[in-house]
Amino acid sequence: MPVTLWGHLFRHARAYVLGGVMLLGFQVAMNRIDWQSKACVDEIFSGDPRGVVRPASFMLGLAVIAFVLRLASRWFIFNAGRDVEYEVRRLLLDRLHKLGAAFYRKMSAGEIMSRSTGDLLQVRLLFGFGVLNMINVVFAFGSALQVMLRISLSLTAASFVMVPFLVVTTRSLSKGLFARTRSNQEAIGRLSDVLQTNLAGVRVVRSFALEARERRRFDAANEAYLHAGLALARLRGLMFPMVGAVASLGVLSCFFWGGRLLVLGPEHGGISQGEFFAFWLALGRVTWPLIALGFSLSIVQRGRASYARLKEIFDAQQEVTDGGSAPVAISGALSVRGLTYTHGDRAVLSDVSFELPKGRSLAIMGRTGSGKSTLALLLARLLPTPERTVFVDGMDVCSLPLSTVRGAIGYAQQDAFLFSTTVARNIAFSLEDPDSAEAMEKVRVAAREAQVLEEALGLPESFDTVVGERGVQLSGGQKQRIALSRALAREPVILVLDDPLSAVDAKTEAAILDAISRQAAERTVLLITNRVAAARRCERIAVLDEGKVAEQGTHDDLVRAGGIYALFDREQSVKHELESLGEAV
Questions:
Q1: DSSP 466
Q2: Within 10 A of 562 (CB to CB), how many other CB atoms are there?
Q3: How far apart are CA 109 and CA 121, in angstroms?
Q4: What DSSP string runs through 369-410?
Q5: CA–centroid distance for 145 within its chain
Q6: Between 453 and 248, whose confidence is greater?
């Protein structure tokens, strides 16, 4: 699909052409009405008013035709504008789904929402009302000019004395309008960002008693938007009176020179009463579009500025690219060979290798910052995975369609994200029909496996309880287990769990580990954890240290080796004993 202004115009060329033809027909009908009005007035002043009936009847019929054509032109062009808005909105969401973490670090959620709403509205106006008015100005000018030139060349020249001034005025103002419109849209984007972050983090703001500081930050952004809006309003307010004043020069010239020609009469090189009336109608038809030209240019410039802001999203560099289009069946064997990943100048992972056969389980352990979560993101291709480093069933994941890789890998992230909807819909998010009875049964099974079923049933509206923005109504442990339920409900071929036990107590941890063991019997499981009790449930363990695989083996082998894993085992054993003593006391 096109991502340029001209591309959208060409894509809907049929609608715009049909709308343009309707506008042309409308202006032709108005042209004929001008001539019939001349005949009516001349008949009245001829002394035989009965001759008015025929041209008046023609005028009535032409007026009906003009009404239908005018309505049809708006139907075609305004619908095309709506279709462009629909397409751009779809393109925008599709692009946002494909862009990676680097883009979202540069552009905030509030800024993206501003562009997705306010800027998109301006684009719709550009492709609807803006296009219609620009086409109508051309046809109205041609239609009226034919009448005016045939009646009097000198009167036409006198009436158009303002056109050079009009061109200069609109050209100079439109440049400033584009710049101020863009500044205004950027200001509202910053304001939206401040508001969005305050709404999402309202509990944090309250807990630190920072309401006053955040109000000041909001007031500063609000004031900047106010100044940008007023600057734009001043220029727009100046444009319409200036254009109207310049156009009024033509009206004054018409009356001055037209009155002189009317006094002379047709016999002495002047014009008749009917010709003056027809000329006045034609001038009125071209004067209003010229006056409205400032408004039309305003819409065009605002639409261009808004589309330029949207195009920044369309043109953003896509970090993770699709490897193909043909779907591939995946059974579940996972292989990592010499995986190295850098962030800036720092190597997050260095020459990481391990094998995870189909239907087996592997635990990844390591200290904070050792690269465990980055590894999980690379496996699911949520970061740009280096080519020929990660393989599923012997196939390079970079050569496979993203939908195939991500469809086969169920990923439960460490920082559990919940949507502002019900518990059931959060768990059933990846299912085809989340509201079906079959989906609800899967939701219950997954919630039971993740040890959150009883708590979900105990909520005010059970599974229909809305969890709030990012799950704000739930505890950290509940959010984590609901996110785990979401991954389990999907029933993926490969299950990647990024520290799913960090926010649960020991009893719940043991029950979840039993569930993970059951999952490992049905699918390939990669468990990222800091807990030895969880890692020892897996068939093999790999220990990361400063981005490198320091140790690999079974629990017993690694304990006997006396390395990093053995240190983790001793530390956690001592901690568990101290906690047990504390409970006993």
A1: B
A2: 10
A3: 18
A4: TSSHHHHHHHHTTSS-PPTTSEEETTEEGGGS-HHHHHHHEE
A5: 44
A6: 453
**What's the rounded Cα separation, in Å, for the pair 299 and 543?**
60
Q: What whole-number distance in Å separates Cα of residue 242 and Cα of residue 166?
A: 9
**pLDDT tens, position by position, 112-168:** 887 887 788 888 888 888 888 888 888 988 898 889 889 888 888 888 777 777 767
Where do the domains of the chain lie, and which CATH numbers do they carry? 5-314 (1.20.1560.10), 334-584 (3.40.50.300)
Q: Which helix (H) or strand (E) holds 447?
A: helix 437-449
Task: Look up residue 390 and give its two tokens.
Answer: 């990660």
DSSP tag of 422:
B
CA distance 132 to 361: 63
The span from the first CA to the last CA of the chain, in angstroms, equals: 70
Q: Do the beta carbons of residue 366 and residue 545 sit within 8 Å?
A: yes
Q: Which tokens belong to 102?
A: 């680097």
Of 213, 398, 250, residue with least CA distance to 323: 398
Residue 97 sits at the vertex; the CA angle it makes with 95 and 103, to the nearest 5 degrees, is 75
Q: What values do phi and psi take at 347, rounded to 5?
A: -85, 110
Sign of the CA dihedral running 527, 533, 538, 540? positive
**Which residues have CB under 8 Å from 149's CB, separation 6+?**
156
Number of other CB atoms surrounding residue 549 within 10 Å: 19
pTM: predicted TM-score of the whole model, two decimal places: 0.69
Helix (H, G, I), strand (E, B) or coil at 547: coil
Alpha helices, DSSP H only, in 503-552?
A: 506-520, 532-535
User: Quick one: tokens of 186?
Assistant: 């950027």
Question: Computed over its alpha carbons, how large is the radius of gyration of the chain?
Answer: 36
Say which residues have a Cβ less than 8 Å from residue 394's Cβ, sequence separation at least 6. Answer: 333, 335
